[in-house]
Amino acid sequence: MKPFRYVRVHSVDEATAAHAGRPGSRYLGGGTNLVDLMKLGVETPGTLVDVSGLPLHTVEELADGSVRVGATVRNSDLAAHPLVRTRYPVLSQALLAGASGQLRNVATTGGNLLQRTRCPYFQDLAKPCNKREPGTGCGARDGVHRDHAVLGHSPQCIATHPSDMAVALAALDARVELHGAAGRRTLPAAEFHRLPGDRPDLDTEITPGELITGVLLPAATAGLPSAYRKARDRASYAFALASVAVALRIEDAVVRDVRIAFGGLAHRPWRALRAEQALTGEAPGDEAFERAVDAELAAAEPLRDNAFKVRLARNLACDMLRRLTPPAGSGVRTRPAPPAGS
Q: Model pTM?
């Protein structure tokens, strides 16, 4: 690990000023991803700006019924918070599926959004990787890519985004709060991460020096029946081969509101807008669910070894839609969802 300067800050303005004044700076929260990358030599920041002590550690209900999550809220605390468990169960389930208890006790909301791909070519300095070193090529494209993207990839990069939490946020229409030299702004969570295009080294829409200060969970999606399901290679904690976050409201035997986002399939959480449009106003049922999900996944471009992900994602999504559909005439809003990691 190369030497670096360490700065502990006590306010958001102090943090952004410290970052902007030192080229090559990185914000440090829980450090569960950044420190690992520093040990590997993938990240070599000249300065670490420690934001873990900032007053951004609360979950609060706002006057309009939305919920604001501070950027330094730990993943364990967020998953267990009563407002999240009761109003946004898909988010709680995604967090619990995302990592071991030890990691959740350290990882933060902002850091979770900023974690980088676990593509082995990105993490190995001996391998070509356009994300790590633009212009060197994508070793995974003709190499080992079973775990890689089937949607939205480019000739430059086929990596997937690893976050489970971000998939749930995309489905919930959450917004990410940012603070920088130009002031404050928010971005839709579904648009916060970028597709690779010809700049795979840019993971997000953050501008240099901007700091994530929080996440806004909207009142409009509070209370919607929702669930998260993740398929992975082993029962213990592992990154998703495919995952899905679904929120579904059915009234008078018609789909009135549906939100679907996939994880493990693309460079960012993939909001399934085609599927949502196809389902809205339709009577729920296997045929409608399969037709809508197939319309979304028709855009998939699987590689030599990962075509199985398309069917896996299809089955996950259709199963979750079925489970969130109340039995006809039962008056029950949802059927129990399986454990998030099953």
A: 0.94
